[in-house]
Amino acid sequence: MTHNPPPTGSIVPGTDTNVAEYGYKQEMKRGTGRFASFAVAFAFVSIATGIFTTYGAVLNSSGPAGIWTWPIVTVGQLMVALIFGSLAARIPVTGYSYQWMSRLANPVLGWIMGWISFTFLAIVVVAVDYTIASTVLPVLLGYEGTPANAWVITSIVLALQALLVAFSTRWTERVNNFAVSAELIGMILLVVLLIVVGAVAKELNVGNLFSTGSLPAQDYFSVGSLLHVGPWMMGTLLGAFTIVGFESAANLAEETKDPARVVPRAMWQAVLASGILGFFFLLAITMLAGDPATLAGSGTPVADVINRVLGPVVGTALLVMVVIAIFACGMVILMTGVRLVWAMSRDDRFPGHAVWRKVSPRFGTPTAATGLMFVLGELILGLFAFQTDALFSLFGAATLLPAVIYASTVLLYILKRKSLPPSKGFTLGKFEVPVIILAAVWLIFMLSIFRDASFINSWLYVAIMVAIGAVYLVFLLIRRGGPSGLAMPDLHSIDAELDADAKHSERAQGK
């Protein structure tokens, strides 16, 4: 990869990137630095959250050997992150895939991409926060989890996250930076302790790494049938559920210093760090799993292994770290959703846009959009809190939707790569073709997994949300007089707006 200097005229003193080039005014402060940008991407991925919540499911569907799908997912998602970085360096504005699709393809497709991204973020923030209440806190505090107390606790967690996001981006980033630092240090220490203590106690069982557990070895590596996926392929969902959300760094582009350079680096570094650290953790846990078939029956298999090997004190410390990591993950997801709603509303493309596009002059954040995401999260939670089967089927869409977003964005890059605007800080250079090929092969493979019948309810949710979006899109097209009415703002738009502001100011001063 190569780094290109920004073209002349793209830098405005005090802003790093001139958003006027894209038809916008600089409305939020640029205070996000390199580590904070990386932390946003890493927190959304959150290997502690993903592995803790899905490792048991992989033991049941794929056996311990399913962890060997993790390196495949890491390489595939790294290729996707590099392509996203190349686009983020060319159009470094809030809205990521929505902006890229709107400006490089057409506004209608861009709106569809924005709506799909919004539906993903609205679900996944509830899915992540619900994990604290349903899986972690009952073990940590020693009480019986029920749908009722899970509902109450998740509601409180959502409220705390919304308060941080609404009233202070600076404090949101501080909390997130602390959480990410704790997760990085904690996971590294855990891996080292597990391997050292396990080796001294002679509990490491390398054979577990190649065991299929309670699943038959015959046809283990098959691709399955039309509506069913083979056991080993299902293991891919461990990484596919976990290593997503790195693009959240691109959704804070207008708040990031030198975003064309910082954001691409933050995304691929978050994927690489998560992939490497997560895989070593999986190796350690699996070698210390004891009897994998027995462990698969536990609701908290990772905590069980750590409690047994390192004792209850370290096990409790792990659970505390997981709670912190999950809280930060949900907070970053909420912030990402808020920025997307704000970006679409700024273009008058979101229902109720006149309200959600406002940035609080006191807090410098889209407080109204934050309120919307909070209310939607509480609504989704309230509708399904006592229907746990339906709720977890809904959460399955949190794995399906990113695959759709990634595949669409990579296809956009493939089709438009010869006519892309100049990069302001990051390009794929001579690695472009290999990266594209690997990303395309990976995404086709990943999408093929979702043909499994277990995802039928997830596809149903997606269909319902797309149908709702289609109704609003038709209304929008009629109101705007066709697709041309959805044209994206450009430099002329901001010039006209600035002229209008200047005239208003002159009138207010009596000139």
From TrEMBL:
InterPro entries: AA/rel_permease1. It is a multi-pass membrane protein. Pfam families: AA_permease_2. The keyword Cell inner membrane does not apply. It is found in: Membrane. The chain crosses the membrane at residues 35-55, 67-87, 108-128, 148-167, 179-201, 221-246, 267-289, 309-342, 363-386, 392-415, 427-450, 456-478. The keyword Plastid does not apply. Keywords: Membrane, Transmembrane, Transmembrane helix, Transport. Its main location: membrane. This is Amino acid permease. The lineage of its organism: Bacteria, Bacillati, Actinomycetota, Actinomycetes, Micrococcales.
